[in-house]
Structure formats: structure tokens, C-alpha cells
Amino acid sequence: MKYQVKPLPQVNLPELRTVGKPLRKVDAMGKAVGDTVYAGDYSMPRMLHGKVFRSKQSSARITRLDVSKARALPGVACVITGFDVPNARLVSDMPGQTGQKQRAGSDVPVLASEQVRFYGEPIALVAAETLEIADKALSLIEIDYEPLPGVYDPLEAMKPGAPIVTPPDNIVARWKIRKGDVESGFEQADLIVENTFRIPYQEHAYLEPEAGVAWIDERGAITIRVSTQVIEHFRTIARAVGVRQNKIHIQGTMVGGGFGGKEDITIEIYLALLAKHTARPVKMVYTREESFLAHAKRHPYVIKHRTGVKKNGQITASKIEMISDSGAYPYLSPYVLLYTTVMAPGPYRINNVQVDAISVATNNPYTSAFRGFGGPQACFAYEQQMDDIARQLGLDPLEVRKVNFLRTGDCTATGQVIESATWLEETATRAMAALGEQTPDYGSVKIGQGFASYFQSYGRITWMHDTSQAWVGLELDGTVTIRAGVPDLGAGQANSLCQIAAEVLGVPLERVTIYTTDSALTPLSGTSTATRQLYMSGNAALMAATAVRNVLLNRASKYFEEDIEALDIADGKAFIKSDPSQTLDLVDLAKMCASEGMHLSNLALFKAPFTDPINPETGQGQVWPDFTFGSFAVEAAVDTETGEVTILKAAACHDIGRAINRAAAEGQIIGGGMQGLGYGLMENLIVKEGVIKTPSLTEYLIPTSMDYPDIQAIILESGTGLGPFGAKGIGEPSLTPAAPAAASAIANALGVSIPEIPITPEKVLAALERA
Amino acid sequence: MKPQMITLHINGRTHYVALNPNLTLLVALRDLGYTDVKSGCEKGDCGACAVFLNGVAVNSCLVLAAQADEGEILTAAGLGTSEHPHPLQTAFSDAGAIQCGYCTPGMIISAKALLDHKPHPTDAEIRDAISGNLCRCTGYAQIIQAVQSAAEKMDAGGEG
């Protein structure tokens, strides 16, 4: 074994009955037997079929748009262009929340009418009696373009004289961090290490393409049943469509994979417009190719690190510059850039830090949220940099990191004090130990092991003042109902709330039913993004369930003539802890409470910490509620003749605070790890002059069951998270360290590092050539 | 295009339908309400639409409905219900093998196709059998565990 695994610090977590168990998730069986109805599965009486007409140019003026032939086609109910809905715009950068002013023109026209800025930009909407007629109508739309000079490289886009995507300039966002004095830090250094890292696009490739159906209900509300991570978009949609906010009703469905790709508004705005204009139900489902064209990608970055270190590996200064490609419209680019900026130095204690980050507009596909939200790009760069520092100093990669790892009580580069456990060495040594002895080289194949450690936030930016609500009630037959606006992406968002309520109210999980994801009928719980649902809505459910429990215990205390503290509830019964044979069934207890007018339900609101924005000049201030820490280890075999990389072993170790459902947590760790390995080694979105050349699942390859071995998931529980029962978040963090760990293992095998992913055979051979 | 009358026996029910001859079996099944058959790519890349046609697992997006005339079709929903699930459906639910669930029906069809002729598969054989079914959520490990666990149960219970 390469590293010594030390015992964990002593943690005393209370014994729980339901929480932590790998129980069958409440949504699982419905999916297994095909009962779960996804957004594309719904039909309505008199339903029309919607389609989007999209730009075939990356940068052009629209000189003529004639939809008259399409409108005249029998069976076409309506064709809508930007001229019909001039006010339909989506504000994409939430002014005031980044601490930056909203850029002129940074809101997105729902339909382009004068100029197109990216290939695939929506220009017109069609609704027709059948899908075939809608397709035919698209082919009858006549359009002339006058090509405009486009810009496809963010570095080019920053130069004077470059084509401007949207006036006044191509700078979408900037962030900076100034901590200490980097110049004096470099003077103290024994060695300065410099590297430039290039990180590509990533496509979400969820199995379910965007889908939904909309209609106008009996109260005149536009009702949209859609696969989305954010039902709160009803407000933006109302503004864009020109109706009151309480006349847009979003019924979110089970989401067939999101990963951030269904975080921005997708088809729901088109459905709303078409339903409003036709006064009939309209259904829209993207093809796979359209899904590739229509939704955002993970941001490509160029990241430069300049690091000063002492001979023992201690970092004296870290200067980082980064540029991200925001594509044609900002969407969430300013926020993603903020994440990359703040995470840029890695989970290391550094007194002198300077980060300068810019997001730049181009005529490329637009970029926005993807699991990790800028964190994975930062991690690839800082962990490759740490490996290179170790190589140049002749030290072990773990030794260099150990000198610098953040500890509880330390500050991040923005001065945020970390209050939870920071089990970096603990996770790194365990992940590496799980790989076991290194397989020996054979023939032309060289074997290497490597790891990457990370920190990644959970919960939204604290100056967004995030809240979540959940409603929990006990029914008179002893069952529990939860209402929460949580979109469930399959990660167990809804199930977690059920396990928490089951724990608190002392009922088996089967007795809990949850109703979710309805902007009008369930309390709003906020977005299923930012690894926030367990933390935020989990706490809200915990608060609501606890309030109901207190009512029950109060009444039971009268019945038993015992103090509340002497009582507990489990298996559907209240009982005296010192004499568990004395019980009161929850059904009887609920009836007593109801007949006495006691409140058997509760609506709770959980608030994250609220802070002011960081200082825009120095970046100093709190940015997130807390962080998850962990490590990923890989053993890779590299064929030096063909450049082929085979992952032989992989292990991930994360401190998730507390597992709420162990099987679901493992599923996040393994599934996120697999997406990260794909990102590092395989997934290759080819974009030429703004056009995606790989818009299918045979051209853009994602991991199959044959590509990588099982990722061993090692769960540590420090109990120090801000979520319910001390949980942290694991949805996004699971992906972050996988690609750099794979790169590290490859570099260890070859003795030469490859500062650019995906590490394809061509890049391996080119690196061997250089070495 | 002139519609063609065809007969489809789906999950034990018989449908007589008039369909355009260029329609895929996937579209026909979904239009008939068998929405457990999922559409992920319509090109045979993802496996979400897998069904049994005359006992053979196929991607229904790569078969014309007309080619399935008089055929016996079995979809994941035809294997079991939430009250009486197939052992694979139980095992997938219990092993954490289901996240978003969109690949699950097709995955279960491929797994059943394997177990039908190989009741005791190795992990490698399971990986091979589901290699045409993409899953973006799970990383496959818990799916493979679920198939192994179902194989054990089916062996013990004599089910299939």
C-alpha cells in the first residue's frame, strides 16, 4: 500500500432508524415497471405538436424571414416569429445577484428576428395538427441570411477589432481575488511552477431529451407539464409571455436526467407561447440532435497557474488567470466563472493569492450549468499543477498536498472560514488504498496510479439569500404526506425528504408519500441545482416533521402522564423510552390530536446563511454555506504504442457528512465519477465555426458499461455538514475529481503530463513524442 | 403514403391498427400508450426503447411497425406491475440501480434477454449484454449488482 491510512477522528453520530439505510427509494418501483410518466409521455385532447425553426448560421443578419407558406399549410395552427413576440426575452444573468451590473443586451431573445449569434438559435415556432405537418411547415419557412464575421475563440474575441457578439464588448463577466501579496510570495519561493491547462466542452447527454406539454386550464392559467430542474422559472416565463405570475402553472415531471442541462429554461417558454397563441394544448419533444443544439454545454476554459513553492512543497504564492467561453449568450456564465474563480487555488491554505477570471462571448454554442458548475475545470487545473509541483520538487504528490491542505478553521482564498471537517488526507489515502498494489507494466503497456483531491461547495451563493419550503402532515391512518416543490432528477431528491420525515415521525418509509414539483400546489422548494436540495429542502422537511412530532409528543405526554423527554416514536407508535411495552399507536394519537383541534401538519421555511456580496475588487467575503471534501484515485494502463488508455481500477472517497440513503449516495459517487472519467478521457464535443459536428450519441461518446471498471465508493461521515443530521452534499462533488485523477494516473504511468482533456490516444502519443 | 393495417400483440393484448408504413415500432408502441418504451435517440444508439419482438430483444426505433405485423411484443411494463414485479424490477429497485429511470425499461429488457439464455452470468457477460443501453446516471455498478441479485432470486424461485 502506497500510503498509510490513519484512523479517522472520533465522531459520535446518533443511531438512527431510517436515515442512512440503503432503502428502496420511493420513486424506484414506478420507474422499474414503467408506471412513471415522463414529460414526453403525456398527451392531451385536441393536442397540437410544436417544433422550433433554428438558425443554420453561427453569425448572420436575417435579411428576410417569410413564414407565409408555412402558415398557409393545412393543419398548421400557428407560426410565431420574433416579430410576433417582440417582448419575449429571457433575462439570463440575474442582475444584482453577482454584484455585477447587468450587461446591455445580455437578456436573450426567445426568438431571434434581426440577428443570429449561434448555430441552432431559435427563430420561429410552429404548432400543427401532427408532427409530420409541423416538420413540413418548418421546411416551408423561407429565410435569407447576410453572414456576419463570427468569432469562435475566446482569446481572439478579446482582441481589439474582433467581431462583437453583443455590444458593447465581448466581456461577459470578470471576477478577481486579491489576498495577501503574490509578488512577495514569489520572492519567498524556492521554485516557481507555471502551466497552462485547456479544458473542453462537455455535453450533458441525459437520456431523456427535453419534452413537455402545455395548455390553458379552466382558470386561464397556462399550465406547463415539463421536465425541468427549476419550476420557479414560471416567473420569467410570465414576464416573457406577458401574463401575470399566478397565471403560469408549472407541473414538473420526473426528470430523465438533468445534470444542469435542464436548469436554464428549455422548451417551456416555446410551449407557453404556442399554447397562448393557439389556445390549444401543445406538445413538444426534442430529437437527440436538437437537444445537442438547443441546450447549454459545460464551459471550455484556458487556465494558467503560476505557483511559488518552498522546497518542502509549501505554497508561498498562487497566481491564476482563466478565460471561459460563454458562447453567444451569457446564461449562467458569470456564476460559473465565480465558482471557478473561488475554487481556483484548490483546497489549499495559501496566504498570497491572485486570480483574474474573464468569461468571453463568442459565436460558439452557449455554455451554462453542468454538474460541478465550474468546479471541475478548476480542479483539473489545480490538481495537475500540484502533481507537477511534486514532480519538479522530487516529492510525493500526497506529501506536497499534505503541507498545504486546508484544515477546519482555515480560510479560503476569499477569506471564508471553513467550519466543517476537511478530510482531505483521510479521503486521499483511503481512495489510493482501495486501488491496492499497482499492477506491473507489461510489454508496451505502462501502468500508473494517481489521485486528485478537491473541495466543492454545496448550496447556492450566500448573497442569493436562498430559501426552501416543505410541508409535512400526519394523516388519520398514521401515514405521512409531504408536499415540496422539489424537482427529482433521479438522485433521490424526493426520497431523501421521505426518509427524513420517516425518521422524525417514527414511521416506516412505506408509509410516507411525497407530492412534488408543482409551482402552484406544492410549497416552493427552490431549484434542483447547486447540490442544494438535501441541504435546503432536507432541512425544511426536518423542521416541518419535527414540528409535527412535537405536537404528537405533547399529546402523548398527557396520555402517558410522562415528560416529553421520556417519550419517543418508532414503528408507528409512541412509547415510553424506559418501558417500551407502553405504547400508543400513531393512528389513535392522530385521532386524539385531530379531535382536540391540534395541528397535524406544518409548513417550514429553511434559510441558508444570508451574506452581502463579496468585495468586487478583492473577492473577499463568504461565497457559499459550506464545502464537501474528497478524493478520487485511478489506476490507468497506457499503451505507449497505440496511446490507448485503459482504466484498471478507480475508487472515490468523500466525506458526505451523513448518508441519508446509503445506496443513493453511492449511486451519486459512482455515477458522478463515471461522468468525470468520460469528461477526462472520452467525451469530445467537436465544434467548428460554431457548429457542433458531433450531435449524436455515436459521435459524442459517453461511457458505456464496457468502458470503465466499477468505481469503488467509500463513504465517510464526519457529521459536520449543514444539512439534516450533519449531511453535506455529494451530487456535484462526485464528478469533480475524476478527470484530474485519471490524468494524474496517466502522467504517473508515462512520466509526462498531458495538460488538456479529453486525454485521447492522439494526445498520449503526442505527449510521448514531446517527452 | 397509404396506411397499412397491421396486428400487434403487445403485453398480451391485441391491437389492430392502421399505420403509415414508414412508422417505427417505437412510435407505434408509444402512440398506443406503451409509454414505458422510452425514446432517447431514435437511431439505435441508446437502447432506451428496447422491447422483445417474438422473444428477441430489439431496439424498437430500428424496426418498422409493419415489420412487426402479427408479432408478439413484450415491453418492460409487460414483465410485471408494482404489485407483482418481475424479479429484475425488484432487484433494480432495491439495488439503487435506478436513478432518473429513463434507461431502466430498456435496461431491464436487455438484462432479461441475457438471463433467458444465461441464468448465471458473470459480471463481464452482464456488461456485454447491457453495452447497447446507455445510462448517464448510475455508472452501471448498481445495475450489474441488480442483475446478479435477480439471477440469484430467479434461480432460487424458478422464475423467469
In short:
The complex is a heterodimer of chains A (about 775) and B (about 160). With about 775 residues, chain A is α+β, with helices and mostly antiparallel strands.
CATH class call of the largest domain in chain A: Alpha Beta
The CATH topology of the largest domain in chain B is given as DNA polymerase, domain 1
Low-confidence runs of chain B: none
Please give the largest β-sheet of chain A: 7 strands, mixed
Radius of gyration of chain B: 16 Å
Reported for the largest beta sheet of chain B, the result is: 5 strands, mixed
Shape type of chain A: globular
Provide mean pLDDT of chain A, rounded: 96
| Broad shape of chain B | globular
**Share of helix of chain A, binned:** 25-40%
Determine the number of helices of chain A (DSSP H or I, runs of at least 4 residues): 18
Q: Would you write up a description of this structure?
A:
- The complex is a heterodimer of chains A (771) and B (160).
- Chain A is of the alpha+beta class.
- Helix content of chain A is 26%, strand content 26%.
- In chain A, the strands form eight sheets. Chain A has a seven-stranded mixed β-sheet, sandwiched between helices. A five-stranded mixed β-sheet of chain A has the order 9-17-16-15-10, with helices on both faces. Chain A has a four-stranded mixed β-sheet with strand order 18-26-27-30, sandwiched between helices.
- In chain A, strand 26 and strand 27 form a beta hairpin.
- In chain A, helix 14 packs across helix 15.
- The two termini of chain A are 29 Å apart.
- Chain B is of the alpha+beta class.
- Chain B folds into two domains: 75 residues, Ubiquitin-like (UB roll) (Roll), CATH 3.10.20; 77 residues, DNA polymerase, domain 1 (Orthogonal Bundle), CATH 1.10.150.
- Chain B has a five-stranded mixed β-sheet with strand order 2-1-5-3-4, with helices on both faces.
- Chain B is globular, with a radius of gyration of 16 Å.
- The relative contact order of chain B is 0.15.
- At the A-B interface, helix 1 and helix 16 of A face helix 2, helix 3, helix 4, helix 5 and helix 6 of B.
